[in-house]
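Exercise 7. Given the encoded structure of a 363-residue chain, write a plausible sequence.
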């Protein structure tokens, strides 16, 4: 199954398959056979679990750069070390880079590729559910201690080779994190799809076929938005649903403590409460959404660990903010996102409502 991503700067495909990595990589033979070097970036966990299989399946000689796992690889230090690695390996503009891992590996690798000698080609080989989102659309970045994804570039991969048979080793926490972005794609695009997800007994143990169906649907939502607005001037903001408050919680917790999707889930509840006020989302929907989240093991404990004042500095660094005013992605109804400016006073009020609601639902 190939899904086209017609980004303005560069069109490419997401190839979704199972147990077909060799064929997928070979589909780039024309470019790869001309490369002077092929470098694979991965992380310590992915490499521990999959190096043998990957090496057997990858059809070209390559050198590997093993990164620290998780957000620890999205740092200035890791960026610098990765550039040093490429220089030490005598890489040039004829070098091709692969990102074999989750969103953290993909974000770091993409940013390194975008800046090494002002840009060398890279391909994403995602290994997490979450990466159905992160590997597509060309947002690349590292974190700054003061804020999430603060330094980065829009830089599209040459392709995305999503062999979902590599997902079977994911721990439950990462399945949950990844499914949060699937739920986000449903919330911003399709009421029926969201209802189907919410009616599922557990979203953590889909069969491979059902999971593939949801991932494909999520990728289609993302691809069509990116085709319309690659650099987030308009509709791409919708993909940030739940991220303004979510990123603040994620950054305040210390990168890597909460998985990205776990934080986004909290942020999506915050955005739903705002959507009751500015859209037509009934309060009952927000409540059943929290119940659905709790049923599937999402935790809201992180909210209690911070005061609104502690979150505010991070909130204000949201990249959608304009002239010091925060912009939230909200829903008129499920599947109909829009962007709304919200004052700091109102943000604080909603933060209070979120805390009360969580307490009530969990009681
Ligand atoms: N660029 C984008 O558009 C975009 C979109 C969403 C999220 N993101 C970013 O992506 C990152 C989150 O991505 P993620 O959740 O994939 O995280 P990740 O890359 O940190 O992976 C999560 C954990 O799972 C492990 N892992 C990866 N694949 C595995 C496998 N197959 N089996 C077992 N363990 C495996 C990793 O080693 C890591 O410990 C965040 O930094 C977030 O900001 C970017
Ligand atoms: O692709 C996008 O656009 C997104 O916003 C997808 C998000 O899921 C992702 O977490 C993204 O990295 C957030 O971007 P940021 O600009 O808020 O850092
Ligand atoms: Zn995200």
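Solution.
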């Amino acid at each position: 199954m190939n899904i086209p991503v017609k980004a303005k700067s560069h069109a490419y495909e997401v190839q979704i398959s199972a147990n077909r990595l060799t064929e997928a990589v070979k589909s780039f033979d024309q470019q790869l056979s001309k490369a002077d070097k092929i470098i694979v970036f991965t992380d310590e966990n992915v490499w521990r679990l999959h190096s043998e299989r990957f090496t057997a399946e990858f059809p070209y000689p390559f050198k590997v750069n093993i990164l620290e796992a998780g957000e620890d690889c999205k740092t200035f230090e890791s960026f610098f070390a990765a550039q040093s690695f490429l220089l030490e390996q005598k890489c040039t503009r004829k070098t091709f880079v692969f990102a074999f891992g989750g969103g953290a590996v993909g974000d770091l690798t993409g940013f390194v590729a975008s800046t090494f000698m002002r840009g060398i080609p890279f391909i994403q080989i995602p290994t997490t559910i979450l990466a159905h989102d992160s590997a597509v659309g060309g947002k690349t970045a590292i974190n700054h201690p003061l804020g999430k994804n603060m330094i980065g570039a829009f830089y599209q991969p040459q392709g995305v080779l999503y062999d979902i048979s590599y997902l079977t080793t994911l721990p439950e926490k990462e399945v949950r994190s990844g499914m949060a972005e699937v739920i986000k794609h449903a919330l911003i695009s399709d009421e029926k799809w969201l209802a189907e997800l919410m009616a599922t007994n557990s979203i953590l143990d889909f069969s491979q076929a059902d999971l593939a169906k949801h991932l494909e649907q999520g990728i289609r939502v993302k691809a069509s938005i990116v085709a319309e607005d690659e650099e987030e001037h308009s509709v791409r903001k919708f993909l940030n649903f739940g991220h303004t408050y979510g990123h603040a919680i994620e950054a305040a917790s210390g990168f890597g403590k909460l998985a990205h999707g776990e934080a986004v889930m909290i942020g999506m509840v915050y955005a739903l409460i705002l959507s009751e006020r500015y859209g037509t989302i009934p309060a009952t929907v927000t409540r059943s959404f929290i119940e659905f989240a709790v049923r599937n093991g999402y935790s809201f404990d992180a909210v209690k660990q911070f005061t609104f004042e502690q979150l505010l500095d991070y909130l204000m660094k949201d990249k959608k903010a304009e002239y010091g005013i925060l912009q939230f992605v909200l829903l008129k109804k499920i599947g109909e996102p829009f962007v709304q400016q919200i004052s700091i006073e109102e943000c604080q009020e909603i933060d209070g409502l979120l805390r009360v609601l969580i307490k009530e639902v969990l009681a």
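Remark. Residues 208-228 form the longest helix (21 residues). Students should compare their own answers with the one above.
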